[in-house]
Specification:
The protein is α/β, with parallel strands linked by helices. It has helices at 54-62, 73-76, 81-98, 102-105, 125-134, 151-160, 176-188, 241-244, 247-259, 273-282, and strands spanning 2-18, 21-35, 38-44, 118-120, 140-144, 165-169, 191-195, 215-217, 236-239, 263-266, 288-289, 307-308, 311-312. Helix 5 runs parallel beside helix 6 (151-160).
């Protein structure tokens, strides 16, 4: 069995901005696992927030033994982008070997479409209101915030999309004081969920603070090992395959989090349909699905995921799984 890593770049429809910076393209790694005439593939998005680069993730994958399996992969790679791409490629290969779909191999019900959030990037209140009006037909909007001056932005988006369900992603950008000041306004404006209001290393400050709107752990939750530290601070967890280290751990994290009473959000980095495909399986029945990466791209993979009024549809075998 041979493992090959390639770099791919997908242009974005427009600049995408969060509190940590802007980008105009998505740079991803594609992993191909070849076994005779069969080839499985997966995609990951190395994330600088977690100390990952295209080079470091490629190097992690390069030292894997040729006969690596999903069972031993967690012993060889930590949770993160490298393990994600390899794990998903191995799932795809297994499905092709068996002539079955990944959801069948995993013992899951047949998946269907899930309504996904559409993300509005951080901008001036006027520009964010214009984005909101343009996308007001969407049932779920996600707002990138995370600055001390977020109230005008939030008010502007609500004016632009007064009927849409709204979730907010602060990307670790608030302090406990800013969050406390904003909390009642988040409730007043009908925000359904707030992701990661405080930095992951400082989120103990959330203990004892009011949570009129459910709080979701993103940067504070990677895999099952993250769960004990979330008690008393969060109501939900955001499962991303690039954090969890692949579909295998993401499914296990989902089950463990649900058993502990957490709501489930399934999110993504900005990547192609190949990155979203396995996440659609995890998103089945989730309280919030945020798999809009391909909607932000100007170009995508062949056999791309289908998005329509019903949401994001499961991948066809021509794409993955």
């Amino acid at each position: 069995m041979q493992i090959e890593v390639t770099r791919d770049v997908f242009r974005l429809r427009q600049a995408f901005t969060i509190s940590r910076g802007s980008r105009t393209e998505a740079q991803v790694l594609t992993v191909h696992v070849q076994d005779g005439d069969l080839r499985g593939w997966g995609e990951c998005v190395p994330y600088a927030r977690y100390g990952e680069t295209l080079e470091s993730v490629t190097a992690e994958i390069a030292v894997l033994p040729e006969e690596v399996t999903r069972a031993v992969l967690p012993d060889l790679l930590p949770a993160g982008a490298a393990r994600n791409a390899v794990d998903c490629a191995l799932w795809d290969l297994e499905a092709k070997r068996a002539g079955r779909r990944v959801w069948q191999l995993a013992g899951l019900p047949e998946p269907g479409p899930e309504i996904t959030a559409y993300t509005l990037s951080l901008d001036t209140p006027e520009a964010m209101e214009a984005q909101a009006r343009e996308n007001a037909f969407r049932p779920l909007l996600k707002i990138k915030l995370g600055t001390p001056d977020d109230m005008p932005r939030l008010e502007a988006v609500r004016r632009g999309a007064y009927q849409a369900r709204i979730i907010v992603d602060a990307n670790e950008g608030w302090s406990a004081e800013v969050y406390t000041d904003l909390a009642p306004h988040l409730q007043r404006l009908g925000v359904a969920l707030v992701e990661q209001p405080l930095p992951a290393g400082d989120d103990d400050a959330l203990e004892g603070l009011p949570r009129p709107v459910p709080l979701c752990a993103d940067e504070s939750c990677h895999d099952r090992a993250s769960l004990p530290a979330l008690k008393g601070k969060y109501d939900a967890v955001n499962i991303k395959l690039d954090k969890a280290g692949g579909l295998t751990e993401a499914l296990a994290l989902k089950a463990a989090a649900q058993a502990e009473g957490y709501g489930i959000m399934v999110g993504c980095m900005v990547g192609s349909s190949l990155a979203m495909a396995p996440a659609v399986l995890v998103a089945q029945g989730a309280a919030v699905t945020d798999l809009d990466g391909p909607l932000l791209l100007a170009e995508d993979r062949d056999a791309a995921l289908r998005y329509d009024a019903a949401g994001v549809h499961p991948p066809t075998p021509d794409l993955w799984g």
